[in-house]
Amino acid sequence: MSDQVICRAGPSLALLKYWGKEVKGDNLPATPSLAVTLGGVHSETRVRVADRDEVSVDGECQDTARFAPFFDGLRAGLGVSTRFHVESVNTFPTSAGLASSSSGFAALAGACARAAGRDPSLADLSAMARVGSASAARAVFGGFTLLPTGARRARAVFGPEHWPELRIVVAITLRGPKPISSRRAMDETRSGSPYYFSWIKESAALLPDALRGLEKRDLELLGETARRSYSLMHAATLAARPPILFWLPATVAVIHACAALRAQGIGAWETIDAGPQVKILCLAPDAPKVRASVETAAPGTETILCGVGPGLRYGPFEGTGG
Ligand code: DP6
Description:
Elements: E1 4-9, E2 12-16, E3 33-39, E4 43-50, E5 54-57, E6 60-61, H1 64-78, E7 83-90, H2 100-115, H3 122-132, H4 134-139, E8 144-147, E9 155-158, E10 166-172, H5 182-192, H6 196-215, H7 219-238, H8 249-263, E11 269-271, E12 278-283, H9 287-297, E13 302-308, E14 313-314
Parallel strand pairs: 5-7
Antiparallel strand pairs: 1-4, 1-14, 2-3, 3-8, 3-13, 4-7, 5-6, 8-9, 10-12, 10-13, 11-12
Helix pairs in contact: 1-3, 2-3, 6-7, 8-9
Ligand DP6 binds at residues 14, 17-19, 27, 33, 99, 101-102, 133-135, 182-183, 273-274.
């Protein structure tokens, strides 16, 4: 059993959204989600064996109740009784709609397993990470991943080498945590939106086109399908009672900037998760123009350029003291 284990994971950005659980309180997804693991940003999680479970994220102690199902599931899955001291940091804003729970729980599952002296398969780590956050089931894999409806684990669809020219421009319209968590918002959409079951039905129908677009590296087909997915998801969310509106004026300005780029023949396809940030799919040669257009359209918006990233990586890493 090693002293400290360090594990990194990139956030999993959904092109087709997971939004809704088959049963409340369990993270079995009610929709299929297809995602890309981002490169260039990550969660880094350090774990050592301890007397009790303790977690800090970006230096802040976390409520252990949020983590209890994850730790209990992980111990059961690994067949151990180990407890863990955890310090996790993100190289991007936490809980702001940038999928920090996906990378955070993926890196946590990887680090805890090794700290407990186990080396499970990525598929088994995916199942353990899902108990923390369903999107984390995807983030253990690099490249492009699928978490099917009702699935306990995600699977890799293509590795990062499938589409090296793909870029994701992350537009941070507002720093700081979002006003309502994904988990609560998806529960309230399920219980209060008359469009919830239409969303579930429509989102399943998007999968074949999204997979075809990805397989053929057809940015227009994939981008149009991803746009449809986030539009349907946010329409259902807005129809909840009370309505949940994640978008800010800057979010809308970025949506229009992407439409203007497409009208000029530049492939810029936006997607939006639970928060005001916008992520834009484009190809590498167009990325500088996309960033400049977004920053002009929504002054004060910061952009981060990401590629397609790898799956879990273990330290030591250069320059981190790890
Ligand atoms: C909008 O995975 O954070 O980012 O399973 O309740 O922890 P829980 O939710 P979480 O939700 C992610 C929602 C989303 C879409 C997605 O990543 O598929």
